[in-house]
Amino acid sequence: MFSVLYSKWVNSWRDLPKLYNQWCNVLRWEKETRPFLRSREFLWQEGHTIHETAEEAEKLTLKMLDIYGEVIEELLAIPVLKGRKTKKEQFAGADATYTVESLMLDGRALQSGTSHCFGQNFSKPFDIKFQNREGGEEYAYQTSWGISTRLIGGVIMVHGDNRGLKLPPKVAPIQAIIVPVAMHKEGVEEKAREILSVLSKKYRVEIDVRDNYTTGYKFNDWEMRGVPVRIEIGPRDIENGIVVFVRRDTGEKITVNLENIEKELGKLLNQIQKNMFNSAKKMKKDSTNKAKTLKKLTEIINEKQGYVKAMWCEDVACEDKIKELTGAHARCIPFEQEHISDTCVCCGKPSNTMVVWGRQY
């Protein structure tokens, strides 16, 4: 529908670029559904743009890929692998598809966001053309890009553990939960609420004053929900002018003076965000291997999963054979290339292209 409208909206180079962004629900007939990752209905953000030149379209395509990478790394604390999809894996009709890939704790990859440069492949059949600066007629250049709620699944599978969720502070709906200890004793709940009024001015903080659950139950409940920091305060703490911070990422307990609580909470949330990213980065590094032969690539995928870096001759037949033997797809041709060997991991022909392979969700 939009392509038909574009042909009516675009008449001159002065009309360009046109940049459209939308959030919408999408329905797909998935044969095998997975929560967040492959549900039949999901929410996504997508963009569509129309440009005067191929260079401008390519620049915007890569800019959006960088933005997605920044969102995933800076907010979700998940390191990404950036690169270009192979011809077989790219979006149908695109000149190029670029991707940000993330590695889950179980060693499987998740395509976390894509950005497509369409060139004139859709503007020609839909007659989207304009008068260029020289007075001639020219077809427009298009891009499209998107991310979806599968990133929620990515956060769960990268950071979660056997105790439940583990949410990065920057995106956690509740950054800290105050749990009064021995709440029935005089002054405890009142002091906890006083702390809440101070911290909630700057942070996303809530208090648990449920009287039908034990303190231990509350601790476990908020750990399972992934709240980054638990703040404990009881009668002795009040006497000593302290509270106890408990980190969800490491389980470490930290004693903090009440007069410094606002400053110390901010520092701790920053530390947790960095630690979660660094832990995920280490996991990604430890789960990345290199292979010079097809036998080695197969062994790594079957025994360890994760990413495997290997050279490829760019022949689809080799790509298909690797997938058939291992179940692994070409995740991308990374922007940061390495020279693993002189020959293709599959057929042994000379190769200058390094690909990262891995099983996917």
Would you kindly provide a written description of the structure presented here, covering whatever features stand out?
This protein has a 10-stranded mixed β-sheet. It has a 5-stranded mixed β-sheet with strand order 10-9-11-12-13, sandwiched between helices. A two-stranded antiparallel ribbon has the order 6-7. Helices cover 32% and strands 29% of the residues. The chain has 3 domains: 2-159, 2-Layer Sandwich (BirA Bifunctional Protein, domain 2), CATH 3.30.930.10; 176-276, Anticodon-binding domain (Rossmann fold, 3-Layer(aba) Sandwich), CATH 3.40.50; 288-358, Translation Initiation Factor IF3, CATH 3.30.110. It has helices spanning 2-9, 54-75, 150-159, 188-199, 215-224, 235-240, 261-286, 294-303, 316-326, and strands spanning 18-27, 41-51, 81-84, 96-103, 109-119, 129-131, 137-139, 141-148, 176-180, 205-207, 229-233, 242-247, 253-257, 288-290, 307-312, 329-334, 353-358.
Features:
ten-stranded mixed sheet; 361 residues; Rossmann fold; alpha+beta; BirA Bifunctional Protein, domain 2; five-stranded mixed sheet; 9 helices; Translation Initiation Factor IF3
CATH topology of the largest domain: BirA Bifunctional Protein, domain 2
Task: Show unreliable segments.
Answer: none
| Cα gyration radius (Å) | 26 Å
Number of helices: 9
Query: What is the global morphology?
Result: globular
Give the helices and strands as they follow along the chain.
HEEHEEEEEEHEHEHEHEEHEHEHEE
Strand content: 25-35%
Tally of discrete structural domains: 3
Output the structural class. Answer: alpha+beta
Q: State the name of the first-level CATH class of the largest domain.
A: Alpha Beta
